């Protein structure tokens, strides 16, 4: 395993290795499975800096009554707290932080990741309803000079499993329902992601 | 809970002309399909030699080349050329249909030499599109009065504009409070139009948190008014909320459903998509912004592939200094 040291890694060449992607995506999938077993939306989301988890999130829309509290937004707040506690500058830390998430971030979260200047996002399955990394809009690479910096995406890691978990979750929530694909994504991504 | 004070002292310091409801126009930010020119496609038509055969010809062609996706078009039109010996012309088929060989025997059916025409591909949605379309071929138009009125700037009367001005003034006051704390001078207000009650007032706080744009602050303040929320605003006296009268309110307010947002400048992608997730009712903003997502770079509020759409209007108090200057400064720099 190659450790992601702060030394010798400049912004442009900053990229996680295959082993790192596997390790942290496995962890994100464990989180998603845990959530599924607890009746929560099965999405795992981790922010990794220097081989350490500095932020993780689950969807908090229902308890906060704030529809912008997606897992990524919650994780970014944890990252801020982590930096504050250690007296580190958020911008410096973000330059070398990777987001690992089991589902493609939505348009809003993609804009948030730009505003935090995150360089790389690794995700599992596409988000056909709200995806901001190419599925609906490509915010990750759009020309938006006032909206932070572009980020690179690594897509498709264990994608079928991520979709499968969302399907199981939907069936549990709506045992009498007759889910079609649109209903599923609509329900999951609007209410809970 | 806070009381929102009157805005009189502020109003006095401003030039009356800039606040005058006649000095600015509320302009809808329409989807591309409403604002674009009509799209034309190629078709064939031919003159009708014997006027008495018209209904028979229409029947024959409707069977052979039905206007399935072109139901907005009339089959027959009066001949445009006054010198022509024939009074009527009939639409035979569009060029797409003609990719399969056209079986209609024009000369035997009593038609003159076929000629090429341009026809509008889709039904016109605005009066402007209708007028463009009709220049090419007679077209049906189901006018949506609201769209026509909106496009003429007639959707809102002077009294409604005065109310918009008052809400936008609250947003400006908040923007100023934020500016005094070193934030970007952007302010926003959320209103319940069914009761004319101000639910939330907030300003940009992005110096302290990169995602705390004025709109994001207001979304969280609305959540607080409903017993939720996730941030504290003690440091920011310019950010406050009012709980709606829950006893009298049915149904219970749910996120931003049915609420109007007033914001001094066009929301960015983050804020625009947060408003989609929050199911905002309508958005009114002052001026465009460089990365704006409600007209400038994207029109997130009009996208059919998202699960919530809403009306957006721009131009509210657009000539007021605080609203107009920020963009001027940016333009000079670029
Ligand atoms: Zn999201
Ligand atoms: Zn914004």
UniProtKB/TrEMBL annotation, chain A:
Its cofactor is Zn(2+). The keyword Methyltransferase does not apply. GO terms for biological process: tRNA wobble adenosine to inosine editing. It catalyses: adenosine(34) in tRNA + H2O + H(+) = inosine(34) in tRNA + NH4(+). Residues 19-144 form the CMP/dCMP-type deaminase domain. It is an enzyme of class 3 (hydrolase). CDD domains: nucleoside_deaminase. Transmembrane segments: none annotated. Belongs to the cytidine and deoxycytidylate deaminase family. ADAT2 subfamily. This is tRNA-specific adenosine deaminase 2. It comes from Periophthalmus magnuspinnatus.
UniProtKB/TrEMBL annotation, chain B:
One of its GO terms (biological process) is tRNA processing. Transmembrane segments: none annotated. The keyword Ligase does not apply. GO terms for molecular function: tRNA-specific adenosine-34 deaminase activity. InterPro entries: CMP_dCMP_dom, Cytidine_deaminase-like. Gene3D superfamilies: Cytidine Deaminase, domain 2. Its cofactor is Zn(2+). Keywords: tRNA processing. One of its GO terms (cellular component) is cytoplasm. Residues 162-313 form the CMP/dCMP-type deaminase domain. PROSITE patterns: CYT_DCMP_DEAMINASES_2. Belongs to the cytidine and deoxycytidylate deaminase family. ADAT3 subfamily. This is CMP/dCMP-type deaminase domain-containing protein.
